[in-house]
Amino acid sequence: MRILHVVTLVSPDGAFGGPVTVAFNQAAELARRGHDVTVCGGTRGYEAIPTERDGVALQLFPVVQLPRLGFAGMTSPGLVRWVRANVTDFDVVHVHLARDLVTMPMALMAVLRAEKVVVQTHGMVVSDTRLSTKVFDRLLTRPVFARVAAALYLNDRELKSLRNIGGHGLSCVELINGVKPYETRDPAAETSGEVVFVGRLHRRKNAPMFVAAAHLLIERGSAAHFTLVGPDEGDGAAVSAAIDGEQQISWIGALGPNDVVDLLRKAAIYVLPAVDEPFPMTVLEAMSVGLPVVITTSCGLADFVTEHGAGLVVDATAADIAGAIDELLANPDRAQAMAARGRQAVRSHASVDAVVTKLVAYYQ
Fewest Cβ atoms closer than 10 Å to its Cβ: which of 112, 165, 230, 254? Predict the structure, then answer.
């Protein structure tokens, strides 16, 4: 099959996070199986825009940023022209859909012209009562949902939102995120005392709480080091103020996807205090390299982590997060056992190979 994946933003710092990682994981596996795959989208930050990644052809075009709207205000005139000229050449168009001015207009163009269109919303298109969102949905989201072959969802919470927006006539198919088989972490990392947070510094990710938990542990005499990785999406100033010069806490900014995996392989514990995070790829990546994880009860992976004994699931408070980190640091054998179970769980249930097998069936 000729398959087109559409994403919002491809950048060297991986600023758009999980949805782009998922798209490239799927695309690379599809290409490995012999399909003709192209990923298109907006881009910024490259000296020379890449044309290939992991054996997948890229068609990337510079984005224009509308003021004060963040990712939602990105648009790409070059991408519009390319999709208009080429969308009918593909058997399937798979849009990693958000309420933005890159993927949503491309999805609308695709459903009006392409043979088959599938959308995957990654928890980004949820019920919202704001007037601006209602207008956006009336003009773009609902017309797209009315014509797609299927909307792929992560969990029951996302399914409910999709039904609220698109109605019960919308064909919805469950598909979890798949992770590549990363090399396991360095054994020395198990006792490194390195505790990491990876994610956009956005309100939902709750990075300041990670810093607050770190301070609690440092005040108790912990020698651990706490590292935050990710671009500023509004919480950067709060994180910097909260760190307040503490030498055992650092925010190193954004890293590219491969550098993030390398950092995880050198860490002892991964922590994501995010609230209502639907299905965080960084948690699966941490588990894949063999890290025990600490997440909150509202995380979409809470049941998965608990079921497989891959880490600790706690309330979203600094005290509870600090307590979980302390428990794992103080009991390395228990932490190592959790890490091993998590790695096996990802291999068995969340590998990109298994996910793409299901995806191909949906395409056909």
Answer: 112
Encode pLDDT of 238-270 as tens digits.
Answer: 999 999 999 999 999 988 888 999 999 999 999
φ, ψ for residue 101, nearest 5 deg:
-100, 15
CATH code for position 311: 3.40.50.2000
- d(C-alpha 37, C-alpha 52), whole Å: 11
Domain contains 360: no
Last residue of a domain, one of 124, 149, 175: 175
- Shared domain for 16 and 162, answered yes or no, is yes
pTM of the predicted model as reported, rounded to 2 decimal places = 0.83
Residues 8-30: pLDDT tens digits? Answer: 999 988 888 789 989 999 999 99
pLDDT of 174: 92
Instruction: Mark out the alpha helices in the chain (DSSP H runs).
Output: 18-32, 77-86, 103-113, 131-136, 142-145, 156-166, 207-219, 236-243, 257-264, 281-289, 302-308, 318-330, 332-349, 352-363
Q: How far, CA to CA in Å, does 199 sit from each of 206, 238, 252? A: 9, 15, 12
